[in-house]
Amino acid sequence: MSASTKPRVAFIGTGGTIASIGAGPFDTLDYAATGQMMQADEILTRFPEVQDWADVVPVRFRAVPSPNIAFPEWKELVLLCDRLVAEEPGLAGIVIGHGTATLEETAYALNLTLKVPVPVVLVGSQRPASALSSDAGMNLANAIRVAACPDARGLGVLTLLNDEIMAAREVTKTSTFRLQTFRSPDFGALGHADGDAVAFYRRPLRRAAPDTEFDIRALDALPRVDIAYAYAGSDGTAVRAFLAAGAKGIVSAGFAPGFCGPGDAEPLQEAAKRGVVVVQSTRAGSGRTFRTTKLRQQGFLVADNLTPQKARILLSLALTVTQDPHEITRIFREY
């Protein structure tokens, strides 16, 4: 592919395993101890082959573990993507390198808040760039191919790891170290980035960027929303602490198919009476919750099939536009 025909793709580096350098080729677990993490341009220098697929423009942003990335960084990324599209005429797509620990949360947050028309693909790796048989280089090359693919437009934010293209709303990390860790338990992959082609097989139906009602570009923070995790013997202590901290919403990560433990029920009901929005999800990792008679009586809403961490993001954003339970119910139904 000649330089004149190659699509132009921006690559934003935020750090994570894909940017990490371990102590040696067999250091696949404790590589963070070296403290070495590359910026976007340094990653491209390490994997120059990715330029075969596109004219890749490196964009420095962060070089941090992904648990360090939250709302302030999401807002910066939204603004950065705005700027890149404005300043790079003909930009085909954007790839964001990211640590895998919170990749799904950043992907979903951006899926709800980005306003750019080009595909945005989040990519990470399970093994550091320095490891023998690292997945970093191939994942990055395939993410660039997906971002440049016309078929990726209109699908919302995507993720690419292990050759699999996933929708931001549906994907979750399911294994600590295995390369096939990112899965969409209920619905599976949207497609694959194979050696001969980027192939899509289905489209997400829920609302996604850029056509959403959420705009965080002028916000200083999101309303506080916490997650109360159910376990045998949970007694509401966490819920009371969240209320004391000023939570505007609480996601109950309940038992499957979707109910909190008896010790959490009373403080969660008290929260709902105070006007705190309580959304019932499940800790199961897949499957829908639905609004039973009991949940209606308790005043709880439901998260559909969103994981607790994604329900938290959607509820936080919903609270920036409404506090009406009927409207929040609509938002969970549409997104």
UniProtKB/TrEMBL annotation:
<comment type="similarity">
    <text>Belongs to the asparaginase 1 family.</text>
</comment>
<dbReference type="InterPro" id="IPR027474">
    <property type="entry name" value="L-asparaginase_N"/>
</dbReference>
<protein>
    <submittedName>
        <fullName>Asparaginase</fullName>
    </submittedName>
</protein>
<dbReference type="InterPro" id="IPR040919">
    <property type="entry name" value="Asparaginase_C"/>
</dbReference>
<dbReference type="Pfam" id="PF17763">
    <property type="entry name" value="Asparaginase_C"/>
</dbReference>
<dbReference type="InterPro" id="IPR037152">
    <property type="entry name" value="L-asparaginase_N_sf"/>
</dbReference>
<dbReference type="InterPro" id="IPR036152">
    <property type="entry name" value="Asp/glu_Ase-like_sf"/>
</dbReference>
<feature type="domain" description="Asparaginase/glutaminase C-terminal">
    <location>
        <begin position="224"/>
        <end position="332"/>
    </location>
</feature>
<dbReference type="InterPro" id="IPR004550">
    <property type="entry name" value="AsnASE_II"/>
</dbReference>
<keyword id="KW-0378">Hydrolase</keyword>
<feature type="domain" description="L-asparaginase N-terminal">
    <location>
        <begin position="8"/>
        <end position="204"/>
    </location>
</feature>
<dbReference type="InterPro" id="IPR027473">
    <property type="entry name" value="L-asparaginase_C"/>
</dbReference>
<dbReference type="InterPro" id="IPR006034">
    <property type="entry name" value="Asparaginase/glutaminase-like"/>
</dbReference>
<dbReference type="Pfam" id="PF00710">
    <property type="entry name" value="Asparaginase"/>
</dbReference>
